[in-house]
Amino acid sequence: MSSVEVFDFQIDYIINTIKKCGAEVVGLQFPEGFKRRASKIALIIEESTGAKTVISGNPCFGACDLDSALVGNVDILFHFGHSELDDTKLEEKVCFIDVRSNVDVVAVTKKALLKLRAQRIGLITTVQHVHKLEDACKVLESNGKECKIGKGDSKIAYPGQVLGCNFSAARAEECDEYLYIGSGDFHPLGVFLATKKRVLIADPFMNEVREVDPSRILRQRSAVIAKSLDASIFGIVVSTKNGQHRIDLAFSLKELAKSNGKEAHILSMDMITPAQLLQFKVDAFVSTACPRLAIDEIGRFYAPLLTPLEFRIVLGDCKWEDLMFDEITGE
User: Fold this and answer.
1) Do 215 and 304 meet the contact criterion of CB atoms below 8 Å apart?
2) Do 108 and 203 contact (CB within 8 A), yes or no?
3) What architecture does CATH give domain 216-322?
4) 110: closest CA among 202, 196, 8, 240?
């Protein structure tokens, strides 16, 4: 399994944990990018422990998205690729495996030095690279930069870590510019919108450095808001998933709609898809679920899908220049 060279699935730890607790039925849950490793890992576990394994086939978008049904039918569930949230700490049968990357970040950090403009640099990343932030920090400091690694709120497990729904670690320290260690644009784009400061992406897999460009996303979100300005009936969508269930927010948004002469209905569901919402005849939806839903699924729903902040902009409760990503924050 070549992926083991890049990512640490902590197989020995998993095997020892199963043997120690005497688990006979083991659940395995993977995010989309790691699902192709599932069968090989399951086979290793079965051969090494004698336990039966059950692999979750449901979509998994974060630590907030535990397969609750599977948890109820296994002795222990290993959830891969995410760190534990404050909302999930009551799940005693769930063990989180960070799946940290073994890729070197020094080379790409040195390359980023050529494009960094500021003195105080905020370092941010996902859970896969949090253990490498100190390596990146040493590179920056040895080249005269001041390195900042912020500690986020209660939803953030490690200093410098950002989630797709929480950028509190980026705001925790005063800095002039950010360097994001990792691949993909969503997390660093969220940091840009949350802080309004320049963000560079240092991708250690591609050994590539690029600057976050928010223009396309901002155009898309502005278009969604514009399409909703004449809406009179809204569907406020609430997820039942752990960590995404914001029913109090949904009720407050419904009251806000009512006070502005709009009709709003709260729709509760687990998996939010275009097909699930197709039968509800509304002019626009408001998602209180995973903040990525409105961003990643843009154009797939028959009616505009707004974030809570965008809904407030539509109602005139907030200004257009206040636009940023929705966040699910902790204490």
Assistant:
1) no
2) yes
3) 3-Layer(aba) Sandwich (3.40)
4) 202
Name the residue with tokens 């002039």.
176
Domain ranges of the chain: 2-100, 106-213, 216-322
Contacts of 217 (CB under 8 A, 6+ apart): 189, 295
CA dihedral 112, 116, 120, 126 (to 10 degrees): -40
Query: How far, in Å, CA of 9 to CA of 216, rounded?
Result: 35
Asked if residues 183 and 314 have their Cβ atoms less than 8 Å apart, the reply is no
- Write the single-letter amino acid at 206: M
Question: Which of 314, 169, 296, 288 lies closest to 232, judged by CA?
Answer: 314
Distance spanning both ends of the chain, measured CA to CA:
40
pTM passes above 0.90: no
Region 41-67 average pLDDT: 92
pLDDT, tens digit, for every residue of 109-147?
Answer: 999 999 999 999 999 999 999 999 999 999 999 999 999
Fold designation for 2-100? Rossmann fold (3.40.50)
Q: Check if the beta carbon of residue 268 is closer than 8 Å to that of residue 238.
A: yes
Q: What are the backbone angles phi and psi of residue 129, rounded to the nearest 5°?
A: -125, 10
Is there a contact between 101 and 128 (Cβ–Cβ < 8 Å)? Answer: yes
CA distance 269 to 23: 32
Cα–Cα distance, 15 to 28 (Å, whole number): 13
Let me know: does 201 contact 210? Beta carbons within 8 Å.
yes
The amino acid occupying position 115 is K
Q: What is the CATH number of domain 106-213?
A: 3.40.50.11850
Task: Give the type of residue at 259.
Answer: S
Strands 177-181 and 199-203: parallel
In this structure, what token pair is assigned to residue 308? 């809570």
Measured CA to CA, the distance from residue 167 to residue 178 in angstroms comes to 12
